[in-house]
């Protein structure tokens, strides 16, 4: 484990989505809200996959500090799953694509659980955790603007999630190296799984975004017959919107033999978040600073 990693805090969070505006909540007509909504719909299934892949090895972790981090990781991911499921109930009242995105994620991850070894499932979680860490970095670097321009309930959900993804971004990786190993074969397995996971993830999101665009076109044509929507100005979700702002180097670093997530040290972004959301999460545990 890296010495620079921050505390992984168990926060008890319950955000009020009842009065939140779920339509165009990001404050800018760029497609960002639809990108994040699409990710939100796949998160409950994804978080369950991450939890199961780490929990399977929990009894084999001999390092007490790493075992504690793994337990805190499971707690945080369970809380993320719950809050995204709650937000998704509100989002689905506005966005008809929600259930389709959920089904796609459930099918892909069901295949992963049924058809790949446990070590590969853990490596897949490492890969996807790297993606969420990159997304978290992008969001936290824009947190001041997001807070100023966006619907409070949804922006607080995403920034809290981003902070905790940053806090625990090395846990899956550390468990993988502790259990599966650090040698050449473990490394080869890790990077091959990252490459295949990257292709699958990007392809799945591209399909999801195409589905969102199709549903939005159909809805607009039903409202304004004969009018062709201008997709450039209508804030449609794209891979460019999802990946924009993520340095390619940040992704490629994962393929280095000596890589560790906390070599990309962005703990200062957590400290910045705390200035906006002091004492966020009722009943922080004793590890809170």
How would you characterize this protein structure?
By secondary structure, the chain is mainly α. The chain has one domain (35-222, 233-272). It is 64% helix and 0% strand. The protein contains 11 helices and no strands. α1 (32-55) runs antiparallel to α4 (118-141), α1 packs antiparallel against α8 (184-223) and α2 (64-91) runs antiparallel to α6 (152-167). Residues 226-233 have low confidence and may be disordered.
Q: How many distinct helices? A: 11
| Radius of gyration (Å) | 19 Å
Please identify the structural class as seen in this structure: mainly alpha
Mean pLDDT over the residues: 89
Number of strands: 0
Helix content: 55-70%
Flag low-confidence runs. 226-233
Beginning-to-end CA distance, first to last residue:
20 Å
- Write down the overall geometry: globular
The major sheet is characterized as: none
Whole-number count of domains: 1
Percentage of residues in strands: under 5%
Order of helices and strands: HHHHHHHHHHH
Brief overview:
By secondary structure, this protein is mainly alpha-helical.
List keywords for this structure.
289 residues; 0% strand; mainly alpha; single chain
What's the arrangement of secondary structure elements?
Layout: H1 32-55, H2 64-91, H3 98-115, H4 118-141, H5 143-149, H6 152-167, H7 171-179, H8 184-223, H9 239-243, H10 248-252, H11 267-276
Helix pairs in contact: 1-2, 1-3, 1-4, 1-8, 2-6, 2-7, 4-6, 4-7, 4-8, 6-11
